[in-house]
Design brief:
There is one protein chain. The protein is mainly α. The protein has 13 helices and four strands. The strands form two sheets. Strands 1-2 form a two-stranded antiparallel sheet. A two-stranded antiparallel sheet has the order 3-4. A hairpin with a 2-residue loop joins strand 1 (6-8) and strand 2. Helix 1 (15-30) packs across helix 4 (73-95), helix 4 (73-95) packs antiparallel against helix 9 and helix 9 (179-205) packs across helix 10. The chain is globular. The chain starts with 5 loop residues before the first strand and ends with a helix.
């Protein structure tokens, strides 16, 4: 894998496209390639390989390179794929009838609609298990770094992360909430997996605790901005998922309106840029990517 500009059939290919291609190819290789009768494996592939943004693995790879990563590219790519596989598992779970009861994801029927609830649930378990297996076998990365990566990812998944965020959203989302309570739910739902991605990049590099702390601040603000963008896009027909899922929920947008929510989002983006610039002082491709990506998405929302 390389994220430097290369020639493809005589034409220059931009670094982000090359990196995304590497992620897609490695995910396809890592996931089981079953027959049509192996429904759980098929559901694993469906939930993961349907085209998506891949922003979490991309951020992991870009951040590691900004921090000076020079070891096994294959091992780092496997770390990134593990993050994406956990994200895919969380989406399958979020869409289940007992959760959000979603019908569409990435412009396709949700996994439980296509394969049934039982298969979807088993696919979630299998994907999370696969992610940890991938980390444990990542080549060119020390055992101590793998152990730290496992700890970061398990923290992001559990009752300190995705599980707690989903529970709060289900149990409190329709109640009146303070801005602080909404931000805390968004942190658990979204920031924690961004944190795992950036921390796993720092672990692979052997970054200092000071750098890792800057990346934690970055992850918090990045997750808040990402969730605000998702809330602002709720009514759009072009997100690839069910529109208007936030009706009746106490989100930032429903509480304060679109204009104030967009200002809050931009404030978080300012903090993201600040902390990225402090953590990655010699290369800023991650910071530039985030700024450009959000600018494009906000222009579409507007």
């Amino acid at each position: 894998m390389s994220i430097g500009t290369e020639k493809s059939e005589g034409r220059a290919t931009d670094p982000i496209t090359l990196t995304l291609s590497a992620i897609e190819q490695r995910l396809d290789h890592l996931l089981p390639n079953p027959s049509e009768r192996e429904k759980v494996s098929l559901a694993m592939r469906e939930g993961t390989l349907t085209p998506g943004k891949r922003i979490r693995p991309l951020l992991l790879l870009l951040t590691a390179q900004d921090l000076g990563y020079r070891s096994s590219q294959q091992g780092l790519l496997d770390f990134a794929c593990a993050i994406e596989i956990v994200h895919a598992a969380s989406l399958i779970m979020d869409d289940m009838p007992c959760m959000d009861n979603a019908q569409l994801r990435r412009n396709q029927p949700t996994v439980h609609r296509k394969f049934g609830e039982a298969v979807a649930l088993l696919a979630v378990v299998a994907l999370i298990s696969k992610a940890f297996q991938i980390i444990s076998q990542a080549e060119g990365i020390s055992d101590s770094a793998k152990n730290l990566a496992v700890a970061e990812l398990s923290h992001a998944i559990g009752v300190q992360g995705l599980v707690e965020g989903q529970y709060q959203d289900l149990s409190e989302g329709e109640n009146a909430r303070t801005p602080e309570a909404i931000a805390l739910t968004n942190h658990y739902k979204t920031s924690t997996l961004f944190c795992a991605a950036l921390q796993m990049a720092a672990i692979a590099v052997g970054a200092s605790e000071t750098t890792r702390e800057q990346l934690r601040h970055c992850s918090f603000n990045l997750g808040q901005a990402f969730q605000l963008l998702d809330d602002l896009s709720d009514g759009s027909l072009f997100t690839g998922k069910d529109p208007h899922q936030d009706i009746g929920k106490s989100t930032w947008v429903n509480l304060f309106g679109a204009r104030k929510s967009e200002k809050q989002l931009r404030d978080h983006l300012g903090n993201v840029s600040l902390h990225f610039s402090q953590a990655c002082q010699h290369s800023r491709q991650t910071q530039q990517f985030v700024e450009q990506w959000f600018a494009q998405k906000l222009a579409a929302v507007g």
